[in-house]
Amino acid sequence: MEELLNWFTIHQQMIYIVILSIFLGIEVIGRVPSVLHTPLMSGANAIHGVVIIGAIIVMGKAESDNYLALILGFLAVILGTLNVVGGFVVTDRMLEMFKKKK
What we know:
Structural class: mainly alpha
Shape: flat
Distance between the termini: 64 Å
Number of domains: 2
């Protein structure tokens, strides 16, 4: 427990930056108009595609007894894939809203 508190003390500034960036990201994303959603979502899908490739590389280079790297790489692949697929689904639904009705 003491090691954990020591780690938090050492990395306190980085923890504050991450927390503030989360609040800033929520504030910025919450104010994006729906017209800009599709271009922003395609950019996010491209970024997550890079995350998936990086996770595959990490898993490929990890030693077979390094379970932490393998588990984190596997989770990154799964969550990145879900995010990309979900982004395409949401983008498709957004584009359907702008099509003319028959």
